[in-house]
Amino acid sequence: MQFVEANGARIPAIGLGTWELRGRSCARLVEQALRLGYRHIDTAQVYENEREVGEGLRASGVRRDDVFVTTKIWTTHFAPNDLERSTKESLAKLRLSEVDLLLLHWPNPQVPLAETLGALARVKQLGMSRHIGVSNFTVALIEEAIAVCPEPLACDQVEYHPYLDQTKVLEACARHGMAVVAYSPIARGRIKNDQTLAQIGQAHGKSAAQVCLRWLVQQNVPAIPRTSKIERLSENIDIFDFALSEQEMGQISQMGGAKVRLTDFGFAPKWD
Ligand code: 1BO
User: Fold this and answer.
1) Is 8 a domain residue?
2) Would residue 245 count as lying in a domain?
């Protein structure tokens, strides 16, 4: 497993995304992923599966300290007291004393960012999270966050795959030592049938999805593919025994002009 260093955090380059995984199958996937060598699990309050993520973690037998666990605070808990209270609730569900990374899930303009980030920094200082960061933040919001946050931010977790150019966010994060963490890294499965990626994969004996994940990791972008199929878990992590050439990397990056954004809501910020 490779790691991406970001403002003190050491983030395993491939993690398991758990959005839309629920109940026993979520716990089983987390357990299986960890047995297969995953060391990074991503959850969120709004996914309603923190309890099952914790169960899978314990069932795997992997030492807690060897696993990087991220959770995210939902936007309705951004008022300072509420943020602290809901973090405690998340930890109770996960049955952990701390997470590795705690993120603001989406920007919420209804609560001043300085107040929310002050509270997020405080839960870090209280030992509830080793690192803190944001998710779905634009460049302007990253700059604002950096200016008001008393603690370093480790990452901005955003939708990122070959069909969505994220150059601006990548540059802003790099300026501040932050990682970009990619969710929906295989574009919710659409990548699997991509002819260009499949062709590149043929030369390396890899699938289109593996080429896509490799393209992210080679940019120092940790990726958190979600799958509900146990057989896909091994495929998604088997990307560390080959490398894409500069020309292949460039060819894939050019596909970002498609501007395919799969996760968008009325409350989303005005994207870069
Ligand atoms: C509403 C959830 C978006 C991805 O984390």
Assistant:
1) yes
2) no
Instruction: Answer for the pair 271, 261: CB distance below 8 angstroms, yes or no.
Output: yes
- What atom in ligand 1 is closest to the CA of residue 157? 5
Whose alpha carbon is nearest atom 5 of ligand 1? 19
* Domain annotation covers residue 199: no
β 68-73/99-104 pair status:
parallel
Residue 198 tokens read as 């499949």
State CA 99 to chain mean position distance: 14
Mutation choice for ligand 1 from 41, 49, 105, CB with most ligand atoms inside 8 A: 105
Beta bridge partners of 170: none
Q: Count Cβ atoms within 10 A of the Cβ of residue 139 and give its class: 0-12 exposed, 13-18 middle, 19 or more buried.
A: middle
Residue in the block written with tokens 């966050």: 145
pLDDT tens track for 56-94: 999 999 999 999 999 999 999 999 999 999 999 999 999
Question: Can you list the positions of beta strands (E) in 48-139?
Answer: 68-73, 99-104, 129-135
The residues annotated with a catalytic role in the active site are 47
CATH number, domain of 156, equals 3.20.20.100
Residue 38 structural domain: 3-190+221-233
Give domain status of residue 241, yes or no: no
| pLDDT class of 257 with cuts at 50, 70, 90 | confident
- Quote the CA–CA distance of 90 and 25 in Å, as a whole number: 20
Q: Comparing C-alpha atoms, which of 148, 89, 154, 158 is closest to residue 119?
A: 148
Cβ of residue 46 lying under 6 Å from some atom of ligand 1:
yes
Please tell me the total count of domains within the chain: 1
Asked whether the predicted pLDDT for residue 119 surpasses 90, the reply is yes
